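User: Some background: our group keeps a shared notebook of sequences we're curious about, and every so often someone picks one and asks for a predicted structure to add to the entry. Today it's my turn. The entry only has the sequence so far, pasted here. Could you supply the structure so I can complete it?
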Amino acid sequence: MDTLKFENVLRQAINGSHEDIEIILKLYAPLIDRQSYLNGKFDEDLRQYILMHVIKNISKFRS
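Assistant: Of course. Here's the predicted structure to add to the notebook entry:
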């Protein structure tokens, strides 16, 4: 995805577009998954917690 398209998707996600929030989550899924380990084991609850906070706070980004 090029920079211009990403900026547009992010702007729409900030404005509450569910489809664009989903795109952002898919783009960042590998990073979110890497951060979802607790004591060396993958923790699905931690992953869900991270996803919830991304969704909850994406509207606070500056567009």
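Suggested note for the entry: The two ends are 18 Å apart (CA to CA). The beta strands are 37-38, 41-42.
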